Structure formats: C-alpha cells, structure tokens
Amino acid sequence: MADSIAVRALSTPEGAVGAGLVCLVAFAGLAAGLFFPGDPLDMVARPLLAPFANPAFPLGTDRLGRDLAAGLVHGARASLAIGLSVAIVALVIGAALGALAGMFGGLIDEIIMRVADAIQTVPAFLLALAIVATTGPSLLGVVIALAASAWTGPARVVRAEVLSLRERAFVDASRLSGRSTVAIAFSVVLPNALSTAIALAAIIVAGALLSEAALAFLGLGDPNAASWGAMIAEGRAVIRTAPHVILLPGAALFVTVLAVSLVGEGLQKALTGRRSEDR
Amino acid sequence: MTRLLRLCLQRLLSAVPTLLLVAVGAFVLIELAPGDAVDAYLAETGGDAGFAAEMRRRLGLSGSPMERLGGFLVGLLSLDLGKSLVFNRPVFAVVFERLPNTLLLMGTSLALAAGIGLSLGLVAGARPGSVQDRSLSATGFLLLAIPNFWLALVLILAFVVQVPLFPIGGLSTIGRPPSILDTAMHLVLPTIALGAGYIALYLRTLRAGMIDAWPMDHVRSARARGLPERRVVLGAVARPALLPTIVVLGQNAGTLVGGSIVIETVFAIPGTGRLAFEAVMGRDTAMLAAVVLTSTVLVIAINLAVDLLLAKLDPRIGARHG
Questions:
Q1: Whose CB has fewer CB within 10 Å in chain B, the N or C terminal residue?
Q2: Does B17 touch chain A (CB under 8 A)?
C-alpha cells in the first residue's frame, strides 16, 4: 500500500518536481566529501572573493576565506541529515505513543495526550531554543530539540487511526487468538496507520530544515559543522560589501524547503486520492 | 451569552493542566541546564564558595529539587520567579515591559497577512483553476518555503542597503522624539518578514474554503435568484470560507510567537522574542522560563479569543444539545 502511494505521489507534478529537486540536493550532500574533501570550515583563499572571480572557488569565499561552494554542499549534507533524523525520531516516538494512547485509552491516553497538548501550546521554536540552551549546541541537541515538539503531530494521527481501527473485525480476530494489546498495536494496527503518518514526514522535514537553519543562524547550531544558517549569520557582517555570502546559502535553503514541501504536497494528493476512491 | 461564558470557563479550566505541565517542564529545563544562574554570574564577576552559597540561598536555589519545584510553582502564582541576573530586576517586570513591542509586531504582521492574504485568496478562489488562481497559489507555495530570517536580511539588503527607504534597529530612532510615523517606518520591514508566511497561509486557507463552497446548494440558489456574480462570490462562496481562516490563526499562534524570536533579533526590536534569545545567550534561565510561560499564556489567550469568535459566529458551537 505504501508503494502505490509513493508511485502516485511521484506521478503528481508537485511530487515529481519536488522529488527531482530533493534528489539533486541529496546528491550534492552525499557527494560533498568527493568534490570538496577538505574541511569546509578551513580558510582556503583570500577572504570575500567574489563569485566567478576565481575558477578554483566558483562561488567565492566568505569573510574568513572559506570556500562558499564547499560550505553549500557540506551544508546540504548537514541540513538533510538533521531534517531526516528529526522526522525519523518524531515518527517513531509519535507513532509509538499514539498507538499506546489509542490502544489502551484511559489514564495512559489521558497522560500522553495532556503532554502533547502542553507541548503544542508552547511555541515550537521557543521550546527548541530552550532545549538547545540546556543540551548545548550539538547535532544531537538540535535533533532532540526539534523532535521534542514534532512528535505530537504523528502521535495524534496514529491515535486517531488506531481508535477507528480498534473495533474492526481483524483486530478482534487478533485479540481472540490470544495476542497481547501491545503486540496487536505494533503488528496489526500500526502498519495500517503508518501511511497517514508518513505524509506528515515531509511537513516535519520541511519545518525541521527551517528551524535548524534559524537555530544555527542564532549561533545555536553545532559550531563544528557547516550549516546554511550559520553561513547566513556569518554573512550579516558583510551584507553591504558582499551580499552573495547571505544570498547563496539562503537560496539553497529555500530551494530545499520548497522541494520537500512539494513532495509533501504530492504525498497528500496521493493519499486523499486513495481516500476518495475508497468511498 | 451563557453559551459563550460556559465555553470560556471550559477552555480556561482545560488550560490549567497545560500550564502546570509547561511550568514543570520549564523548571526541569532550568534544573538540567549546565550550571545555574549563580555559576553564570560568578563566571563574570568571580567570588568564593561562601559567596556562591549565600547567593544561592538568597535566590532560592538551595534545597532539594522537590523543594525548589515547590518554590518555583508558588513563586509563579504570584508572578515572582526571582530576579534576572543580567538585568538585576524581577524577570516578569522585564517581560511585561517588552511584551507590548512583541504584541505590536504580531498585530501588524497579522493585519498585513489578513489584508493581503485574504484579498489574494478571494481573487484565486473566485475562479478556481484559472491562470490567476494558479499563479497566486504557486506564489503562496513559494512564500511558505522562504526562511523568515533570510527574508528579513534580503529586505534589509534591498530597502536599507541598496535603496535606503526604511530605518532599522529597534522601534524608534535614537535621539529623536518618539512619533507614530517613526515607529511605523521601523515596523515595515519586520512586519513583512514575519507576515509573509501568513499571507500565504491566509491565501491558501480562503482559497481552499471557497473551492469547497462552490458546489454547495446555497451557491446555486444564489445564482438562481439572479444575484450578480460579485455578490455570489462575496456573499455565498467567500463568507463560509472565512471561518477556517480564523481557525488557522489559532493553530499558528505558536509559530507566530516563535517567528518573532528571530525577526526581533535581526531587527534589534526590544520584545519578548529577542528577550528569549538574550536569556539563552546570557544563561538567564529564570528569564527564559518567564518568557516560555508568558508565550504559552499568550498562545492560550489567542486560542481562547479564536474559540470565542468562532462560537459567536457559529451558534452550533458549545450548544448543549446537538
């Protein structure tokens, strides 16, 4: 079932364009070490070299003489890694908690959903800021900070699906065969609810890309990793003389977020298409 | 009116456990932070262990974690979370002093977004599938993908550096008597940067609502009565589609508050958003907790206002029977 949704999503114009762009960015990120084997944070040339001025550094350099092209592709790697990690953590935790809440109901449901309510009331970026302030600026800290609010979406979706699936015949059959509630939740109900949750993944990744960049922009990203947000922050000081230092990484971020959102739109269309055919 | 009052009480009651959880969460974050406010203070001024212990006692930072949590919650009830070590003033005094600036920025951004977003959404939804609809929808999609802090810098580049149209930095020019015009000029760029995403959100929501409304019976009967197309679009199609745009405002209140952190930092606006950033940088955890709690209350208040507005517009909401 998940396969056919992917195929359908790819056959929508949004999904096709988005997937193509995502592949492009992913390729740049994966091949970063191949094209630019050095540390992208090393000084390699004269500072503030303009784009196209020196063929060895096609996009120029920043205030510290770091190669912007190298920064861009290494930044793609970091952005996608964080975006995907946040989505995976949020989906796994959200799906598990949502399934537990839906299957057991009662007090467990009440506790999980109250916590979800509280987390959704706190502005997500403020929560991320507070968590990073506690964990310190590291890759893991950023992923935890962003997943801390992102899990509530999948949790609600999975819980709602579980509640509607719980009373169906095949779940009763599974229960009559003597399996425990937890086993049923994870083996029977969850796979059914997952396709809806996966459509949420694109939205989570797009949000995580933006929030990660904003955190790095504020100086709260991993200081040892190339990051588009940090590059933009670095370029602020030279906005008058060398605007390309902020324009390039910002454009890269914009295109990536756009690509992921397009994939999400494609998935959404594929899912609602399936729904309307079901009826 | 009793229906609205009941709804109001109901919502306020359900906000209590939420606030309690957020307060405990804020306390846990303060506890987990490496070092406490005294450490951060001593790192700058220096001082011996005796001085540190005396300071901890004075700030209520000694005692067991449960005792400290109790003190924290009791303090919260009287809006007293202690003093900020950066400002050397009660944290909530600083927060409340800065809150109006954030509310002003959020208000202008929402007004801009509602004004432009709803008009564009009306144009798009009036003729679904037309060229104008497609180009507007695509523009909305692009707007949603623009990072707001980058948009802020691009606006500065265009309208401050290249063409010096607007002043930046704070909400008024230093050394000049405060005037509404001066503040308005300072607000233009931050308002666009924060509101851009919401323009897209309003556009998409109104358009989607109008597309849902087109095939409905009351639209056909409005046409059949011979109403001019203009009145059909405004009265029959757009009117019911306005309700979801109010819902969207409530759903995204938190994103708006979060966005103000970055925008206020870029434009050096002394609001609660920039205060959050300063609190993180200065390890001013009590201040950060105060900002988190105030922002949470703000989100709850916006949602309450949205719920009440919806209930006022739709008499079915909150009615006891059906």
A1: C
A2: yes
Residue A231 and residue A249 in contact, taking contact as beta carbons nearer than 8 Å: yes
DSSP letters of A7-59?
HHHHHSHHHHHHHHHHHHHHHHHHTHHHH--S-TTSB-S-TTPPTTSBTTBTT
Give yes or no for A127 touching B (CB within 8 A).
yes
* Domain definitions of chain A by residue range: 2-45+61-278
Angle at alpha carbon of residue B61, lines to B55 and B66, rounded to 5°: 160
Best to test chain A binding among B32, B141, B150, B168 (most A CBs inside 10 Å): B150
For residue A6 the two structure tokens come to: 């992917």
Regarding predicted confidence, which is higher, A107 or A52? A107
Tens digits of per-residue pLDDT, B288-322? Answer: 999 999 999 999 999 999 999 988 888 887 776 54
**Contacts A265 to B, Cβ<8 Å:** 141
Report the alpha-carbon distance of residue B129 to residue B127 in Å, rounded.
6
Cα–Cα distances in Å, from A161 out to A189, A239, B42, B133?
8, 50, 53, 34
Cβ contact (<8 Å) for B255 and A122?
A: no
> pLDDT tens digits, residue range A205-222?
999 999 999 999 999 988
**Four-way CATH pick for A2-45+61-278: 1.10.3720.10, 3.40.50.880, 1.25.40.10, 1.10.490.10:** 1.10.3720.10
- DSSP string covering chain A: -HHHHHHHHHHSHHHHHHHHHHHHHHHHHHTHHHH--S-TTSB-S-TTPPTTSBTTBTT-B-TT-BBHHHHHHHHHHHHHHHHHHHHHHHHHHHHHHHHHHHHH-HHHHHHHHHHHHHHHHS-HHHHHHHHHHHH-SSHHHHHHHHHHHHTHHHHHHHHHHHHHHHTSHHHHHHHHTT--HHHHIIIIIHHHHHHHHHHHHHHHHHHHHHHHHHHHHTT-S-TTS--HHHHHHHHGGGTTT-THHHHHHHHHHHHHHHHHHHHHHHHHHHHHHHHHHH-
This prediction has a pTM of 0.89
**B156 and A239: CB-CB below 8 Å?**
yes
pLDDT digits (tens, 9 = 90+) for A158-169: 898 888 877 777
Q: Is B165 on the interface with A (CB under 8 A)?
A: no
ipTM of the complex as predicted: 0.89
Q: How far is B230 from chain A (nearest CA, A)?
A: 31
Best A14, A110, A113, A129 member to test B by mutation, with max B CBs in 10 Å, is: A129
Please give the share of chain A, as a percent, with pLDDT higher than 70. 94
Chains A–B, number of C-beta pairs less than 8 Å apart: 127
